[in-house]
Write a structure and sequence with these properties.
This protein is of the alpha+beta class and 105 residues long. It contains 1 helix and 7 strands. The protein is elongated and about 45 Å long. The two termini are 24 Å apart.
């Protein structure tokens, strides 16, 4: 398994544990079907497509900004950074972090 895929898996672990706890309490969870970029390994200065799809949420935020439950946005990668997606449902909240590592050419 390459390092980037391993790091993404580790980043998902807190969300998986939270989901398990909420389901055991009878909560309904929003589901993040997709939250990723294309290409996945950008160089500094590249433009990438940030894509997301969320099911079962009343509203969705990316870095504190309201967005539709599915969509995409072109972004220029100036440096490595995190994007935070928060999906709100009536009795639950799901947070997912996407860490983009920008490589120098």
């Amino acid at each position: 398994m390459n390092t980037r895929k391993y790091l993404k898996l580790l980043a998902m672990l807190p969300a998986i544990l939270l989901a398990t706890a909420l389901l055991s309490c009878g909560g309904v969870l929003p589901t993040v079907v997709k939250f990723d970029t294309r290409p996945q390994a950008p160089w500094v200065g590249d433009t990438v497509l940030l894509e997301w799809v969320v099911k079962g949420a009343d509203h969705v935020l990316i870095d504190g900004v309201n967005v539709a439950d599915s969509g995409n946005k072109w972004i220029v990668i100036d440096s490595s950074r995190d994007y935070i997606l928060v999906a709100h449902a009536p009795r639950a909240e799901y947070t997912k972090k996407l860490h983009i590592i920008a490589e120098h050419k």
